[in-house]
Amino acid sequence: MERVQYSLERSLPQLRLLDEQKLLSKDELRSITSQRQAFEARLIRRKADKADFEQYLALEHDLNSLIQLRARARVREASKSAQKDDPEYKKQLLPRNFFAKQAASYSAVCIGIFERMVRKFRYDVDAWEQYIAWARSHKMRVVAGRVYARALSLHPSHVPLWISAADHELNGNADTTAARALLQRGLRMNQLVDEDAQLARDAQEYPPAKLHKARHGSARATRDAGALRWVLTDYEKDVLRLWVEYFRMELVFIERLRRRWRVLGLDSGAEATASLPSDDAFASARATAHTVAPEARDADVSDDDDEAVAAAEAEVDEQVPHAAFDDEDAAPDGTRTTPRAGIAIPPGHAQIMSGAIPLVLLTNAQKALPASVQLYLYTALLQVLAAFPFFDSVVVREYGEVLSLRTSDGPLGSGDQLRRRLVEGVLRSVHTLGDKVWSAAGQLADAVLHAVHPLLHPWSHGVYCDMECTAMPAPVASEELEQNGLLHGASRLHSTFVAALDTLYALAEIPPSLRVADAGAGVHDPWSICRPVLFLLQVVSLRLVERAAEADGAASPSASSEDDGRIAWQPTPYLAMLSQSGDLPVVIRTLTTAFRKRLTASDAPLALAFLATLRFLANPTRAGIEESHLCKYLARAEDKLLATLLHDGPHLDLAWLAIEQLVRRFAALRADDADDATLTALFADAHRLVETDALHPGAWAMYERIGACVAARRLPDQEAAAPFAFPSAADTSDAGAARAAWLSMLQACTTPENVAQDTSAPVWGSLVLYLGCTRTELPDDAALLAPHPARVALWRDFVAWAQHAVRPAPETSAKQARKAARWAWSTWERAVSRTGALLASSQLVGTARAHAQALHDAVVEDVYVAVSAPAEEGADDAEGERWRRLQPDDALAWLLQHSSASVACWLALAHREAAWSEVLPDVGRAASAGRAVRLYERAVAQAERTDAAGVVDVWAAYLAYLVHTQRDMRTALATLQRALPRLQAADVAWAHALQRAWHALVDSA
Question: What GO CC terms are in its UniProt record (predicted)?
Answer without folding.
Answer: Pwp2p-containing subcomplex of 90S preribosome; small-subunit processome
